[in-house]
């Protein structure tokens, strides 16, 4: 079809949490939207359409090789253009290394590395027509390791490396790549993390960290900053003071941070020896006293559609 008069953004992992908020921020800045997630897109579509954007949805697993070509072809067919690609889809497995399975690593790489690399590469020719932008949503876990998050950290390190390298190459085609590096955010997504080992204990420490204001950032503010940096063509943006500090210290003194994080791991729940697959965190109830400490995270889950998407693990 003829190109739209409005800029167009494709957002993966857009049904809930940060992905939904990034799409909302782009809608408020005048973009029409192509939203992708495995399921649960209707509440997000309705919210965003009410803000004046034209919204097209597509249910797909970005970990599948064919999904990238499908998405780019749909963007060209529906809008005739693409100005922004937000690669946000994610999955997170929480648990000690002995309780993790090979499938956890495969899933993490499929979603967070290939789910970034394939759409970005497929979209480059269409983005080059408009001098487009790519936002690669990675994580502070891609800058320094975190205990009990080994598949997530490995995939995010790969995503950071790819996004940084792609920025060097894509500039020749007039496409800017921004490496978004959030720290802890209050998105409510912790309830849909995949937990293994001592499920209640693992969910407890993980959820508390995402609920403390001094450790985590409000998700709406995070989305505003990420979109602003992307549209400006900023090479990298790190969110939260703690993430800034951690990345700088690890770059300057990696041995020190590795020793410190090794000590932190000793404080986390011990392996259980289970061979059971990881399960959604919300199936492991929090004690009543701990629920009182995690009110901000639960409120965010209600606001940003974390209860509407039945697919486990993703964002």
UniProtKB/TrEMBL annotation:
Keywords: Oxidoreductase
Organism superkingdom: Bacteria
Gene Ontology MF term list: oxidoreductase activity
PROSITE patterns: ADH_SHORT
SUPFAM superfamilies attached to this UniProt entry: NAD(P)-binding Rossmann-fold domains (SSF51735)
GO terms under cellular component: membrane
Gene3D superfamilies: NAD(P)-binding Rossmann-like Domain
InterPro entries with a match to the protein in the record: KR_dom (IPR057326), NAD(P)-bd_dom_sf (IPR036291), Sc_DH/Rdtase_CS (IPR020904), SDR_fam (IPR002347)
Location of the Ketoreductase domain: 7-188
Family: Belongs to the short-chain dehydrogenases/reductases (SDR) family.
Protein name: Short-chain dehydrogenase
Protein source organism: Pseudonocardia oroxyli
Record lineage: Bacteria, Bacillati, Actinomycetota, Actinomycetes, Pseudonocardiales
């Amino acid at each position: 079809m003829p190109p739209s008069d409005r800029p167009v953004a494709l957002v993966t992992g857009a049904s809930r949490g940060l992905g939904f908020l990034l799409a909302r921020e782009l809608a408020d800045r005048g973009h029409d939207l192509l939203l992708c997630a495995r399921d649960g897109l209707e509440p997000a579509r309705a919210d965003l359409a009410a803000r004046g954007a034209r919204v097209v949805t597509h249910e797909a697993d970005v970990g599948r090789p064919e999904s990238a070509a499908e998405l780019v072809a749909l963007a060209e067919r529906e809008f005739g253009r693409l100005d922004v690609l937000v690669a946000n889809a994610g999955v997170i497995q929480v648990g000690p290394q002995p309780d993790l399975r090979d499938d956890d690593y495969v899933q993490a790489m499929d979603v967070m590395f290939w789910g970034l690399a394939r759409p970005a590469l497929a979209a480059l020719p269409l983005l080059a027509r408009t001098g487009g932008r790519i936002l690669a949503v990675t994580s502070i876990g891609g800058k320094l390791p975190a205990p009990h998050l080994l598949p997530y950290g490995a995939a995010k390190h790969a995503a950071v490396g790819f996004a940084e390298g792609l920025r060097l190459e894509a500039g020749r085609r007039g496409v800017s790549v921004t490496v978004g590096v959030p720290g802890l955010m209050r998105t409510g997504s912790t309830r849909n993390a995949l937990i293994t080992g001592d499920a209640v204990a693992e969910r407890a420490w993980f959820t508390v960290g995402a609920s403390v204001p001094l450790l985590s950032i409000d998700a709406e503010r995070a989305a505003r900053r990420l979109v602003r940096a992307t549209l400006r063509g900023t090479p990298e943006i790190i969110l939260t003071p703690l993430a800034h500090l951690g990345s700088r210290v690890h770059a300057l003194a990696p041995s020190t941070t590795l020793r410190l994080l090794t000590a932190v791991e000793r404080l986390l729940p011990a392996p259980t020896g289970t061979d059971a697959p990881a399960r959604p965190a919300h199936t492991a109830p929090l004690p009543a006293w701990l629920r009182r400490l995690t009110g901000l995270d639960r409120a965010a889950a209600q606001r940003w559609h974390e209860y509407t998407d039945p697919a486990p693990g993703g964002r």
